[in-house]
Amino acid sequence: MVEYRIDRRSGVATYVQIVHQTKQALRLGVLEPGDKLPTAREVVEATAINPNTVLKAYRELEREGLVEARRGLGTFVRRSLGAAPADHTALRSKLTAWLDEARGEGLEREDITALFNSVLDEKCPAEKGHEGER
Amino acid sequence: MSRDEEGIALAAVGLGKRYRRRRGPVLRNCSFRLPAGRICALVGPNGAGKSTLLSLAAGLIRPTEGTLTVLGTTPAEARTRFAYVAQSKPLPPQLTVAATLRLGAELNRARWDRAAAERIAYGPLAPGGDRDGALDPTSKIRSLSGGQRTRVALALAFGKRPELMLLDEPMADLDPLARRELLGALLGEAAEHGTTIVISSHVIAELEGACDHLLLMGGGRIRLGGDPEQLLAAHTLLTGPARDLTGHTVVESRDAGRQLTALIRPGGPLPDDWQTAAPSLEELLLAHLRNPDAPDLFTEETVETDENEENARA
Fold this sequence. Notes:
The complex is a heterodimer.
Chain A: H1 14-27, H2 40-47, H3 51-63, E1 67-70, E2 74-77, H4 85-104, H5 109-123
Antiparallel strand pairs in A: 1-2
Helix pairs in contact in A: 1-3, 2-3
Chain B: H1 3-6, E1 8-17, E2 27-35, E3 39-43, H2 50-57, E4 65-70, E5 82-85, H3 97-107, H4 114-122, H5 146-159, E6 164-167, H6 176-193, E7 196-201, E8 213-218, E9 221-226, H7 228-233, E10 236-241, E11 249-256, E12 259-265, E13 275-277, H8 281-290, E14 297-298
Helix pairs in contact in B: 3-5, 4-5
């Protein structure tokens, strides 16, 4: 179950914060398909925000196909974001090996970051609106 | 009840109230509508008329002019469907908390929700037992602090399972923890049952984020009415070279020599050499309170027209 933390001074609209935190939980595998999101009541009791703000965030997540509202039951996760967590083990060990090699060739942390980011930008350019979350 | 009145929790038309001993009216010519299901912050300085408006809605006093419709009918007819928590929280001092709640149950037999009332008074039935701030059922009302009495009064209001809650400065006596807890409980109730909540305060910060409707009172009238986001969107803070502001509605302007700072409702495009920013809710309210002559502003759904009924729900 996710718990939302609302930062009132961030300047980011509250419903956007909820959308963002839900996506983060989907990426990290904290939320998986079939999981239930907290009810609007649970969220507003914990955060003292307006119920309509929660509903607006859930509608946005539904519109993006990430969750579905089942009448009388609640809102459920339809799909996760990113690769399944199981795949990460293999990738992680390859990345670790690669990093060992880079260190072996005398690269510093900053060099590694720069190199990684340049390949990252080349292979998966940031999609428009992907990080901004609107 | 007509279709039009169904979705409106409160509707005032030309509402005015004058107390015998006071020179001027406390309220004059107030007209506004509050759609049902909203969490409405009723804000304004001391003496602005907030308590008078709530007492009129609760049917405790009568208007000297105009009408106030509550849940589509008169306050007297709507009595069983709303709950009113007065600032003074009149409760029988000799009764225990448990007896007070039993009394509430007796007086509201048709719709009493015991679980909801006890949850507010004694805290959620959580494993782990005692919580700070929650009440002992055997305590006498007379021995309770102001904040604890607020808890009893709110418990009675919740138990009534009302369609509308009228709360006059309920947060004033509460410590920050209880404030957060009870505001959360109120909003939870609204989320579950679609309860309309009108909550007065002179501290807007504590309701920002919780309310989706705002009524700003000042000088006996409603100065601003509507969805706070829409009200904010209608205003711009600007700084720049002093220049004629004709064509825009000026709420406040300060002129330090050549430099101008103003809060306006833009009536057209603004010149490029003016820096603009979105005001915060607090800036918006303070600017209006400092400038009693600034024109009032109501979003569309707050004033009486026929076709905006649907928009109110969208």
